[in-house]
Amino acid sequence: MTTSHYIAGRWVEGQGSDCISVSEPALGLPFAELMAASVAQVDQAVAAARDALPAWKKVSASTRAAFLRGFAEQLGQRREELITLQMRNNGKPRHEAEIDLDDAVATFAYYAELAEQLPSKNRDVPLAAAGFTARTRLEPVGVVGLIVPWNFPLVTSAWKLAPALAAGCTVVLKPSEVTPLIEQTYGQIADALGLPAGVLNIVNGKAETGAALSSHSGLDKLSFTGSNNVGSQVMRSASAQCRPVTLELGGKSAIVVFDDCDPDQAVEWIVAGITWNAGQMCSATSRLLVQDGIADVLLPRLQAALQKLRVGNPLTEEVDMGPLTSQAQWLKVASYFATAREEGLHCLTGGQALDREGWFVSPTLYADVPKDSRLWTEEIFGPVLCARRFATEEQAIAEANDSRFGLVATVCSGDLERAERVADALEVGHVWINSVQAVFVETSWGGTKGSGIGRELGPWGLSAYQSVKHVTRCLG
What we know:
The chain has helices spanning 39-58, 61-77, 79-90, 94-116, 155-167, 184-193, 207-214, 228-241, 263-275, 292-308, 327-343, 374-377, 393-401, 416-425, 458-463; strands at 5-7, 10-12, 19-24, 29-35, 123-124, 132-140, 143-147, 170-174, 200-202, 221-225, 245-248, 254-257, 287-291, 346-349, 364-367, 384-390, 405-406, 408-412, 430-433, 448-449, 452-453, 466-474. The chain is of the alpha/beta class. It folds into 2 domains: 5-249 and 451-474, Aldehyde Dehydrogenase, Chain A, domain 1; 254-433, Aldehyde Dehydrogenase, Chain A, domain 2 (3-Layer(aba) Sandwich), CATH 3.40.309.10. Strands 14-15-16-13-12-18-19 form a 7-stranded mixed sheet, sandwiched between helices. Helix 2 (61-77) packs antiparallel against helix 4 (94-116), helix 3 (79-90) packs across helix 4 and helix 9 crosses helix 10. It is globular and about 75 Å long. The N and C termini lie far apart (65 Å).
């Protein structure tokens, strides 16, 4: 693939020094290559977005909504192609790839509706003081850089791209070098819809490309989803420009199971929270806190459920969990298995890479994990679950909150009043009660503590790409 970058409405060849090898994780083999964008091409993409901004800002909200609906419709028309690509490049089982596609479609449709509901550019503001009038305007923040991860391509980019376009911003999108192919779809759709040149630009590359974009003086905002290590670098780059950022970073989330919960239902919620996308989720509920009264019943059932999961190639088998998406991630998870052996953790099931082609690991459960274990405190990004017991509600809340992360949590209890009370006490951005991790576009997404800055989805996602201007006039 030579023309893998979409700049100023044209597909161009990469001129960077890096060759990106795109792999099929179920086989552990590459199936495509593309040349990265050069720093000069990042400059060109930002310049194109800057040139397109004045006209795009003036486009009516209804016109922007029509483009967003066009994205939703075009994604739906490419459904089978995109589902297959998610399965092949990410290793996702079919049912997960289908949900990803539906999520992206719903995101564009939702922000099309929000775009149409945008208030008029001017809104009067009542003042207590006499002799003055005031009005407020919501304006697009400007040119935004969007850097997205490899675990949910197409989805995470939709969460950023749709509200940015709805707000009237122009965009430079940098996909992950691990999964760069599926985001090319957005450029193809832009061509098909006649989106004005420069409104959407896509540059592919590795760290050099990401650094060039995140430090670029031509951006007005940067939105990044990824690891804390890279997120801190992005924030440093933004601080040099005094530029606003949205950061959606890591997690080490808790799932709290009280002894009045149905154990079979709890097992379903626990398994989904740690094995969806092979555990490669910032929201993975990888810390299981289980109350003493149910632990001896729950843990054996959970062990059996994990052992029954079908792990394999989603393109050739009916599976519950696919491979890890990259060799680097496979090696990282394997290193945590080694750490667990060194720490003498009690492994109920799993704890090893699978002896087959591709980047597969076994769903894993460790019991009675000490609070100072690296596996309890660090984000692993794989299907590795650590369990601890607790006695009281107060202890559960304290241990769940004892983390440098604060993205999500799940509460499982037959006492809904208690479940709501615990949800309110948890220091996170999103809590599920007696549920799998259902994420709806109308709700917010983001965390507290080290899990990031700002919110995506819902009206909060749109406001992240808007700036507020007030105009005050003296009547005298």
